Amino acid sequence: MNTDAILLLIVFLAVVTLLALPLGRLLAAVGGAGKVPGFGWLAPLERLCYRAAGIDPAQGMGWKSYALALLLFNGLGALLVYGVQRLQAVLPLNPQGLGAVSPDSAFNTAVSFVANTNWQGYSGEQTMSYFTQMVVLAGQNFFSAATGIGVVYALIRGLAARSSKSVGNFWADLVRTTLYVLLPLALVLAVFLVGRGVIQNFAPYQQAVLLDGGGTQAIAMGPVASQEAIKMLGTNGGGFFNANSAHPYENPDALTNFAQMVAIFLIPAALCFAFGRMVGDRRQGWTVYSSMAILFTAMTLLVMWAEPQAHPALQALGVDQGGSSLQAGGNMEGKETRFGMAASSLFVAVTTAASCGAVNTMHDSLTPLGGLAPLALMQFGEVVFGGVGSGLYGMLVFAVLGVFIAGLMIGRTPEYLGKKIQSFDMKMVSIAILVTPILVLGGTAIAVASSAGTAGVANPGAHGFSEILYAFTSAANNNGSAFAGLSANTPFYNVMLAIAMWFGRFAMIVPVLALAGSLADKPRLAVTAGTMPTHGPLFAGLLIGAVLLVGVLNYVPALALGPVAEHLQLFSAK
Question: Is residue 483 within 8 Å of residue 97, measured between CB atoms?
Answer without folding.
Answer: no
